[in-house]
Amino acid sequence: CFWKLKPPTPFIFSPFFFFFFFLFSLVSRPVDGKFCLGPAPSASQLCNLPCPSECEVSAWSVWGPCLPENCQDRQGRRGFKMRQRHVIMDPVGPSADCPHLVESIPCEDPVCYEWIISEGICVTDHGKCGLGNRILKTLCKNKKGEEVPHHLCSEYPRPEVMACEIPCATDCVISEWSQWSPCSHSCSSKNAEGSQSRSRSILALPAEGGKACPPDRVLQEHRACNDHPCVHFYWETSPWSSCSEDSLVALNATFSWSGEATCGVGIQTRKVSCMKSSSGHVTPKRCPDSTRPETVRPCLLLCKKDCIVTPFSEWTRCPTACQPGNATAVKQSRYRIIIQDAANGGHACPDTLYEERECEDIPICPVYRWKTHRWSHCILVPDSVRQGVLGYNEACGHGLQSRAVTCLSETNESADATECMRWAGPMPPLVQECLVPCKDDCTFTPWSKFTACSFDCESTKTRRRSLTGRSRKRDKCQDTEVYPQVETELCPCEVFTSQPHGNWSDCIIGGGKSEPQSGMRSHGDTKECGEGIRLRAIACYDKTGRLVDPSHCSSSGYIEESCTVPCPFDCKLSDWSTWTPCSSSCGTGVKVRSKWLKEKPYNGGRPCPKLDLKNQVYEAVPCYTECNQYSWVVEPWSPCKINSEQNSLHCGEGIQTRKVRCVSTAEDHRGETVPSTLCNQAEIPDEVQKCSLYCPSECAVSDWGQWSTCPQVCDPNDVQTRTRQVLRSSVNTKPCPEDSQVKPCILNQNCFQYQYNLTDWSTCQLSENATCGRGVRKRLLSCVRSDGRTVSARHCQQRQLEKPTEMSSECLVGCVVDCRLSAWSAWSQCSQTCGAGGQMVRGRAVLLQAMGEGRPCPAQLAQHRSCPVKPCYSWRLGPWSSCRLQGGQCGDGLQVRNLTCVVHDASVSATAKPVEHALCAELPLKETVLQLPCSVPCPGDCHLTEWSEWSSCELTCIEGRSFETTGRQARSRAFVGQSPESPESCSGQVVEIRPCSGGKCYDYLWKTSLWRDNVRTVWCQRSDGINVTGGCALQTKPAEVRHCSPACRKPFSYCTQRGVCGCERGYTEIMRSNGFLDYCMKVPGLEDKKADVKTIAGKNKPVNSKMHDIFKGWSIQPFNPDGKLKMWVYGVSASGFLIIAFLIFTSFLMCKKSKQHQSTPPQQKPLTLAYDGDIDM
């Protein structure tokens, strides 16, 4: 199973591939997507559509000479003048085409070849001055300016000599004719005709007796020019037709052209007609046949592509189970997918891609029903069973009654009961309990139906019954408290209250209650912002506070509230302004256009590009202006003006002036005066110059000729020269001025080199309305002089410099792609069938990720909303009662519990309320045991608890690693009661162990508490933090009770927390030299009662060891831990010795003094020494 995509672009297939594909298509049919592994391939991708752009052409050239159609086969005296323009940029688009590139004008007397004349020296007929002839040099050239053999110009007279005159010394001297001025009009019409003029001037005045100067009117000449009418003719072509087969050129071959398979060569045709610029179609004779475009051209035929579809999928399955007889017809369907669309005249795709049909032979479910018969009489329990029961001799009490149940078919015929159990459900009960009242019982009629309820919630409903038979006369039956004859119940109240539950849903655009239509829609067709609603689920309660279906409170089960999703707004700029004029009037320059800010972005819209301080963005591209679009035009020089006040002869140095103006050379505005700033200011001609009007009898010379040209490679050794001619010799011996001048060729002064200059590539220029996609970038070519000045391109063309060919190239501006999302899916089913906390979710998928500065994909691809809280009905089991014994205090008994149908919202803190059992009838009962046997052990019985849960599986491990594959787990139970006289009466196991799989390794460590009264708690803990019994090695178990070694057997001693022997309160430790306790010495002054230290019976009871430890630090310790006496003991001993010596000495003095007085001492009592210590005196 695999994903199949329709290819986005055509491919070139070999015949073998078509054969393989044909076989493959026989077996590959679409199936459900769940069978294909992995994610589905992307169903969308980016593509580029070339934006249409118009053809760009250059300006028209000047009109050429009048030429015949064919110089080899000239017919008549009719010809054409022509002008051309060329394509600067090809058009883009299916219907784009360039305008005509050649225009023509009919003319008379066409010339293929002409004599080019150069004048020679004037040779006088007699002497050195006067009339004579000028010998002419002639060359025959064609229309391209190329020299050809002279016989081609034989039909035209060849000029050889031309009359001339050399002025004599006393004659007037005039200059040669100037060049003809530009024609005033490009063509002639009724209101305007073209004209041009030329002039010459007086250079020297005549002497007395010489030839006089001609009048001023003779010094100027005028002639007509551009006398052809202002009507142009050109060939117009229709678009090429599509490529069609032609039997003459068809080939049985396959080519690859432009990436597509081609199957032969065909032809394309178009119409060609002669057009007149002002009136439309004219006869073809008015246009030159030499420039007539072709009407037929060969083309490559694209191969036909037939539509390719998959076979139909398998029919969907019809149901195998039988259907009810009244059910609608069940249909099955199948579909197929287009893999390749038809193209180039191939077979079209079929119209039917989806089929369905009704399922056949679906069995109709048979109809069976149960028929119940009347109940039988109540049958009582047999007498043998009822003996010993009060009133057993009466035919009354509880019994059973039965009825017959039969199975009937659709035709009311008897059928097997198994058919009804299969098709009609379980069999109705055959037996039910009944009651035969005894003679002392109260008998009643059956309860009547409840009365109808009103719409008032406070109303009640009642039902009645009445006594029957003898019961009506009995007093006890009249007691309505014991035997009620009327029952009253509150009518069900239809007042419901709702409470919001859960959080508000996300803001849902396009409706929240209804389910969206299935299928995927593009992001652009789905509303993503604006007004919407948000939902909050409700829980509905009745008057008693019981949870009911939410439809009682709201049809939708939700609280609705309007909301708004703010729409993102992108930065908005104005359209591009028009391009400014080119910054340079000659050569390359820059033109600029701009946009300005209209609206700032907000709510996450696309940001603005970088703007300037004026909130504008600019685009600048290079531009080129032909240097000869504007030119300076000069009028003839005025006659040389001599200051007559200072010169009576009216000759010599003077000045002359002329008018200079800037005119347009463009075809549409040729000759029109324009502002002078448009012309090159560096080339502005002089308006005033000095002049010389030679005096009579002076040598007269002509004006200087043009400087000769310097070579292309400038060399200071090369020179420029210019000359002038002597027009009239001098009468006197004064020499004539120089007739030639020379200057060196210096680079960038009078010698220049030229080269083409390319600008950098422009930015990618798109069509007018495009913002991205394919465009064109350009670079411009200009002719630059070696001094850096841009000049006319003809300077580079004349030198035949190599010109770069690629002036434009395709480019691509990446499109800003916004994230595209699918439509929202349908809301899912609620995650819970009932109760609170259920969620519904819907989602959408990313069809196309954002690119560039496009609007990114939102983080929220799923929306959630809480489900309405539907009531959950379940059986709830009460707690087990204590073991109930029948008339005893031990032995076997029963434990019981109640089963109640409750309603709740399935939450942890849910409060369940009992409801009718019928609401839980359809729910399966997890546990229906309501009674369990139990026992209370009697004295001497063995009674064990229930087994505990099995422990987790454990492996035997060494340093955290196990080499076992099977582990062990255990459980235990404990004795509850056991006879002390016979402990072997309980023979059951206390611990059970079983093998298990998937065990873990654990470490076991002994843990201890702090010491307390020389006792502490010791337990074993597993590495997962669980305290366990067993697992830790008993050999390493820490001590639970602390003992002193050796034991403290001295009187008044005990074992301290430090593990050494100490003395009780009131006693001080006397230590041995090895650090152990020797004995306990009584601290003097602390006893209230003397005791016999020789007997153990006189020993006080031990005091609290804690209090002893507190005051133990105050006891005098005469020994160091090493058993040696402390220093203070020696000091106290020495002090005691001195005190005793002092007392003896004092006593001696006192006794001696008393003897000296010879006094009779009083009778003394005997001195008694007593001590409580253990030290013998």
TrEMBL record:
Residues 1046-1085 form the Thrombospondin type-1 domain. It is a single-pass type I membrane protein. SMART domains: TSP1. Coiled coil: none annotated. It comes from the Eukaryota. It is found in: Cell membrane; Cell projection. The keyword Oxidoreductase does not apply. The chain crosses the membrane at residues 1127-1151. One of its GO terms (biological process) is cell differentiation. Residues 172-230, 307-363, 571-616, 819-872 form the Spondin-like TSP1 domain. This is Thrombospondin type-1 domain-containing protein 7A.
